[in-house]
Amino acid sequence: MLKTNVDRLVQISVMGEIAHPASKQSPYRISTEGEPTVMTGSAGITYNVRVGDSATHWLADHVEPAVSIKHPQGDGVSGPNGGLNVLACMGNRAQVVSGKAEGRTGIVTGKHGGAERVMVDFTPEIMEELVLGDKIMVRAWGVGLALTDYQDVKIFNTSPCLLDAWGIEEGDGMLHVPVARLVPAAVMGSGLGVDNLQRGDYDITMFDEQVVKEYELDSLRLGDFVAIMDADHSYGPIYRQGAVSIGIIIHGNSIVAGHGPGVTSLMTSRSGNIKPVMDTKANLATVLALRDDI
């Protein structure tokens, strides 16, 4: 088992409400071909989209799987919602604390930057009981998680239970990390320029057909672990030859320039001490046994 500082990590409560889908003044999104299109967006309760499902084939833009939560106070990036987005980690337990589904539980699966929302997976039966505005409390645990034997590897947004279940192995002084896909840093878009990886995501652009085919990006699933090659996420995502960063697909594709399936960062090594291991089962739904139908 990987040696960590888990005994020093604080567990703390943060809370949000199921967020209502919104629209700008114009309902249109403009594609990279200049076409105005009206599409389903993000937020709300997405009854038929969960982690484990495709991230690319929906007639939607930035679709967020299952349930999206946000704290109503503050400007999104500071105050209570800032706390929710920074402290919640992938794999954290989330509990409904109001409404018909009170007491039911789910799992944190993503953080959407710009929108400043946290995604939580629930079973279809629980989602049928939920309504917009229901309060969901997250037992946040994972901020500060570190690998004591790998000083070059930084961990972000990862709960200790996810790290334990992931199937990471050690060998030749490196971490062998299961991932479903490799992604070249050259196609990473929206989210570049931020100064931290503790909240939000950045997007895989899907507009170069040759790259999409070569790396089989059209088969990406929500919840897939992906390795972004030549990307250093130590203090914000940048291009650095030889670096390797690992993230998880947290929202669906987009037709808008610079956007695409979103990746929340989980791990990075500036010197490349992470060796991606291809595994088609490297998906959050499988690793945490969230579904029995995939």
Q: Architecture of the largest domain in CATH?
A: 3-layer Sandwich
Counted by DSSP, the helix tally is 5
Uncertain residue segments: none
What number of domains?
2
SS-derived structural category: mainly beta
Our Rg estimate from Cα atoms comes to 18 Å
State the end-to-end distance. 27 Å
What is the name of the CATH superfamily of the largest domain? tm1086 (SG structure) domain
Helix content: 10-25%
Spatial order of the strands in the main sheet? 1-5-8-7-6-9
Would you report the number of β strands? 19
Describe the structure.
By secondary structure, the chain is mainly beta. The chain folds into two domains: 10-140, Beta Barrel (Thrombin, subunit H); 153-287, tm1086 (SG structure) fold, CATH 2.102.30.10. Helix content is 11%, strand content 33%. The protein has five helices and 19 strands. The strands form four sheets. Strands 1-5-8-7-6-9 form a six-stranded antiparallel β-barrel. Strands 10, 13, 15, 16, 17 and 18 form a six-stranded mixed β-sheet that branches. Strands 11-12-19 form a three-stranded mixed β-sheet, with no helix packed on it. A hairpin with an 8-residue loop joins β6 (93-96) and β7 (105-112). The radius of gyration is 18 Å and the shape is globular. 48% of the residues are buried.
